[in-house]
Amino acid sequence: MTEKIINLKNEAIGNILEAKEEKELERLRILYLGRSGKVNQLTKELPNLSNEEKKETGRLLNETKKTIEEVLRQAQDKLTKGKEEKEWIDVTAPGIPPKIGHLHLLTQAIREISEVFEKIGFVRVRYPEVEWEWYAFEGLNMPATHPARDDFESFFIDAKPDPKLGKMCLTPHTSNGQLREMERVKPPIRMINIARCHRPNWDIIHTPTFHQFEGLIVDKGINITHLKGVTDYFALNFFGPGRKTRLRPFHFQFTEPSFEVDINCPLCLGKGCRTCKSGWVELGGAGMVHPIVLKNGGVDPEEYSGFAFGWGVERTYIMKSGLNLGDIRPLYESDLRFINQF
Looking at the domain assignment, is residue 207 inside a domain? Predict the structure, then answer.
């Protein structure tokens, strides 16, 4: 019996010292010290021994059990220490730098547009997106019967109307800034108003919420040649060489005479495609400020004249050469595959 116990101890110590993984140590612990382990199997043979043999054999079994437990503990500590050394981290080392984000494409566009006009003296302003009818329509020479004031063309807010200013709406254009700027300062005025606008439209070149930039110059002796000069300057500095613009006679309630400013399509350069259809894409409206609008803004039309233009930021930006973006709707989606390109 004594020989069995000594052989068992030596066997267990040898197997434990050769173990390379924690799973193997756990298997050996169960094999030797578990409820059905080899040590307990020998303990069950004690009743068959004499009293003298029981005493000596019991002492050997207890020593063997303690020895195996100690060797297991030492082996476990050794494996744990080796694992910690392999996984050691220098807390003073520089961390992994996070990915650096960038401005959204629309923010980039607004900044570029602002910089172009600031170089020729335009002052950047911003006026309310929730507006009264007077500033959005009436004061801009758009009577109550005008189609733009229909519920299907503008977003009106369910709020109590003002006795003088009319109903409340989400501003459909940045032209409300014309009246507010003329009320705020007296000529000379050189304003660029960039803000969010709202109209119930949705297709590849329209979204219900979009951005516009509104230019306004009011001073003595302003005429169409000044308007043409500013539009040519913007086309040259924003779109670059190779792009052509044209003035097309049109009608707007708040300008007289009025024009549509077109630019050749950046995708087909005038040949005609899915986006432009005809080779030309509308930048937006422009014209000489109507005398009634000047008068509503508190400016004497006999002494001062001016011109204004209002163009969509998104539509203008996708016309840049090399962008190859034929649909403005992805600008408002959360697809990082698109956003991360810019």
Answer: yes
